[in-house]
Specification:
2 strands; 48% helix
Length: 229
């Protein structure tokens, strides 16, 4: 952990990027043997409230990997590639490789869900999580897939450049997940996004990077042209 003096003495740019990189590196190492990301880190049982983190004596445990968590990880890792590619190319490439691997793992395991408090009394393939941390049940990862596809597309394409076959596929994946690359018209829970509803996080990345008009044009080019008979 960075102490306050370390933080203050950093160069201005590093004051933002270095602590964030430490946060990103943790999930890079916390994937299972097939590339799936664990869904949460929590205490093994409930602690007293309030309790300072430094005084917590409970063991910390990883919750089982899920499709949604893996897609969320793919999105964050792809975004990290864009942020660090001109700062630390080695770390950026590690992030992009992890993002691609997570995407592939999620496609191979499209229905591994996390069950929580609303699953009590129901028969579920995996146990419901209600101990030591929030349940955070999520059985609809389509929005996470849209976010991951968007971040991977942005990582592998550039304005004015020609999309590779891999980038074009991600654009098709966006279309499949949200109707089209520019159909982010409905608003989910909290009218924007939350831990569970994150499709519009991809939209934010498009807007922040000025790619919204570009992706609309490219998406339209993917549509098959009608043939007059």
């Amino acid at each position: 952990m960075l102490t306050p003096p370390d933080y203050v003495n950093m160069q201005i740019g590093d004051r933002v990027y270095m602590p964030v990189r430490a946060v990103i590196k943790f999930p890079l190492s916390e994937v299972d043997a097939v590339g799936m990301a664990f869904s949460a880190v929590r205490d093994e049982s409930w602690t007293s409230i309030p309790l300072a983190p430094a005084n917590d004596t409970k063991a910390r445990v990883l919750d089982y990997p899920t499709t949604a968590a893996t897609l969320n990880f793919a999105a964050v890792a792809a975004q990290s590639y864009r942020i660090w590619k001109d700062i630390d190319r080695v770390f950026a490439n590690e992030c992009l490789a992890a993002a691609k691997a997570a995407w592939t793992a999620a496609l191979r395991n499209p229905a591994v869900f996390r069950y929580g408090e609303y699953s009590e009394g129901q028969k579920t393939p995996l146990r419901a999580i209600n101990e030591g941390g929030g349940a955070y049940a999520d059985t609809a990862p389509k929005d996470a897939k849209a976010w991951a596809a968007t971040e991977l597309y942005l990582a592998q394409s550039a304005v004015g450049g020609t999309d590779s076959a891999e980038a074009q596929q991600k654009l098709k994946d966006i279309n499949a997940a949200v109707g089209s690359a520019f159909a982010f018209s409905y608003l989910d829970y909290a009218e924007s996004f939350s831990w569970k509803h994150n499709k519009n996080m991809g939209l934010m990345s498009l807007l922040v990077n000025g790619r919204n008009d570009d992706i609309v044009a490219r998406s339209r080019c993917l549509k098959p042209k009608s043939v007059r008979r």
